[in-house]
Write a structure and sequence with these properties.
single chain, six-stranded mixed beta sheet, two-stranded antiparallel ribbon, 6 helices
Amino acid sequence: PQCAVWGEEVEAAMEVDGRGGQGLDGALAVRQRADRARSGFEMTTALELGGDDGEVVRLSGFRGQVVLIEFWTSWCSPCMRSLPALQDRVKQWMEEGRKVVLLTVNTLETEGEDAASPESSIQRAHRVRKAYGIEAPILLDMDDSTAREWGVAALPAVFVIDSAGRIVTRVDGHGPGAMEQLEKAVEAALAAQGMSSPGDGSQ
């Protein structure tokens, strides 16, 4: 059910070393960040990326709100199932008057020619947006640096960020139970804001 794009620590070390010269130490640091994210309550790494609409989005601008961030790539079929499903669930929370922000990050587009060019990245994002009805921001991680900083090891990877800017959970893949795990984390984050039931967000 997952599109694993980075493997074990040694494979990750080779990948990071080829891109940033960090070697095994850098790869292990990425893995450690991922492990801490799964355990909860790690402060987020800064995220600032341009979108397919030309606007720059900063995660810091959403402090005080519950945020979902999905890392995805167009050649990953679980990602293409996860994106619209997650967007639909976020819309349900919004309809209940509970504010949840969804940001999506297109990354690790390593297949095909000119995959890293700004033009192809924007065109690819537009195709996915149109094909799957994606209304959320699509942010372009064209050099994969944001994915590395966030310790993304498999796609899709979804992070739940609470109103204090902490990673409260992370779910890799879109297998059985993935959506339920995300819903539980979001509900807990909303409850911490005093929005534990529909309509609480309208106060």
